[in-house]
Amino acid sequence: MNEFDNLSVSDEGLYDWLCQMARQIDLAVAIINPNKGYTIEFVNQIFTQTTGYREDDVLGSTLSLLQGPLTDMLNENSIQESIENGLTFKTSSFHYRKDGYAFWNEVRHLPMFNQQGILQYCVIIMKDVTDSMNIESLIELEREVYFSLETGHPLENVLRNICKSVEITFGKKCHCSIVLVDENDRMINIYGEMWKDLKELDEKVLLMDMKDNRKINKPLILKDLEQSIYHEAYRPIIDKYRIVSMWSQPILNSEEKTIGLFTMYFEQRAEPKTIEIKFMNRIAPIVTLALKYFDQKSAIHRLAFCDVASGLNNYERFKIILNDFTANQSMGHLYIIEPGEYQNIIDLYDRQGGDEVLRQLANRIQNIPSFADSIIARYTHSAIIVATRLSLREMKIPPIVAEQFLSEPYYIDGKEVYLTLKIGTSSFSSRINYIEAVRQADIALSSALKVTGTVIKNFNMSLIESVEQEMNVLAHFARGLKNSEFFPMLQPKVNLMTGEIESFEALARWNSTDLGVVSPTLFIPVAENTGNIYKVDLEIFKKVLLWQKQRHDAGLKLYQVSINISPSHFYNPAFVESSIALIESYKVDPKFIKFEITESVELENVIRAKKIIDELQQLGIETSIDDFGVGYSSLSYLQELPFKEIKIDKSFVDNLANPRMNAVIKTIIQLSDNLNMVSVAEGIETEEQHLELKRLGCQVGQGYYYYKPMLIEQINELLNQQLKTSFSK
């Protein structure tokens, strides 16, 4: 509590007593006489020390003597009103010393009343609180810096705000700038209202300040820029902003290495006081903390929103941006893109090779003008996802655009790599949120992955229906195996010369208790994808063997039946041994079994395939190559693998009337003759096809022109009918 608080003194000797008390306290005191126009009648020595005014300068004046260019006049008016109304108050005001030095002045008013309650004197107690106010301002500035960075404000905005805050707080007409440099002392950027003009200056001059600062390890103070060695270099700044003085302070990082320069440019001659040097020394660390915190936030952001391996945005970042798109009524297209050769790249070049391919692919997409503003992110380990806000009509990817991604090779470890792309697309809008749009593009990609070559699949509802069908089939597949719902339908293979049935092909069918008849085009891919296709193979194999055993036991003629064998089953190490054991368990002669192997069945492993086929042949089991001509290396296979039969694919037969295709089929038939193989044409549906194939020398035909696939019971009836017909003849 101050000595003047709750003072009650008689009128006599009040003034003398107030003066005596003012001389004894260590605060600046001024005594104002209300009866003399609220002028100052007395000041103590500390008042003159604080303000720089002599006693003669002050007496007879008012407190307005302390006002200056940046003084808050509203606050000053409030002070004067409180004094005139005899009100106690305490406030802080921006005042000026006689030499023009500004300081924060804590002003307290204690009114002195006589015994009649009439205001006799006003005691003004003052204290220079510049240091504490500066500290308070810096604490608030630091808090604002952290808040701005935490809420995602750009670093440049934060640094500009630091400059602006210092300009307001410092109390002199000044302009601030922050210059940042890299590890080689090259300028990165300039922040502050003068940044454009400062950038026009010679960089060497700007950074020379920094080098001079290093030498003396303290702020560089130029009280008169005109008289310094820099005056010509700074001439544009001096003239435009009327700069007189310049102070600069190095910005250091935690390793005490200079990373920038904080500079103040004054419009009047300014020589810093000790308290101002302290203030500058506190500003530079705030900039350092801002930079460090920004780097930490950026590192956290990279971990949270960047795929470190490829350098692309990760899917979390993509979702946030895409959600903003749809929330802002934007519309556009989504693309999920996966290189068809991704797994091969991983096998050859490790995961870094896969990362590099996706990075190069993203760069190529970004360089296409219509995709320049797109968002690209890593979606899965093998795919990227792209979103653009251009109109849907503009964003349809024609094949020619996709070719721009593929026209040049990709490079991994200096080696050329050519790709095919699988692309699934969908649209997004305010009506289709990003979650649904991504799901739709994913469904389209799944469809694209099932097709060879570069494929673009646009989402449509039929794809969902297809997926739902597949999932439904998958859900009932295991029960179908358990309940033995899979069965063979036999399609006769006819001798084209005699018209007689020579053999049959067993075609897998499924009559589900829950789903009814399920198409092979649905259940076979599901069986293959789940690794259960060999179980279907075995189910068909067993039922064919059972039929042959029944005919054998009944003394009826046996026919050779071709069984389709899946790749996983064919290459199973126990395939040959288990097959012959199964045949023997039904007591069927192996010559009545033929295994059909699809040409696409990874026959590039020729050595292993030849060993399996040779073993089967030694056991009396023949093999056939199915869908011949569909693959890429058919002729090379035929030279190495001892097949007994070549099946010409239906797609060839459908185009038999085309002269070029006719010539191809003729060549295949001649080739089979030269290799002592039987030629079988699949999918014969017309008499014209039958006659032309017969003319070309094809030996066996199969198709609806002769017989459709039939149940075993129907086959028995057919064979019995043919037997009766032959007897009647």
UniProtKB/TrEMBL annotation:
SUPFAM superfamilies: EAL domain-like, GAF domain-like, Nucleotide cyclase, PYP-like sensor domain (PAS domain). Residues 36-86 form the PAS domain. Residues 470-723 form the EAL domain. PROSITE patterns: EAL (PS50883), PAC (PS50113), PAS (PS50112). GO terms for molecular function: cyclic-guanylate-specific phosphodiesterase activity. Pfam families: EAL, GGDEF, PAS_9. Residues 89-141 form the PAC domain. InterPro entries: Cyclic-di-GMP_PDE-like (IPR050706), EAL_dom (IPR001633), EAL_sf (IPR035919), GAF-like_dom_sf (IPR029016), GGDEF_dom (IPR000160), Nucleotide_cyclase (IPR029787), PAS (IPR000014), PAS-assoc_C (IPR000700). CDD domains: EAL (cd01948), PAS (cd00130). It comes from the Bacteria. PANTHER family: CYCLIC DI-GMP PHOSPHODIESTERASE PDEF, SIGNALING PROTEIN YKOW. This is Bacteriophytochrome cph2. It comes from Solibacillus isronensis B3W22.
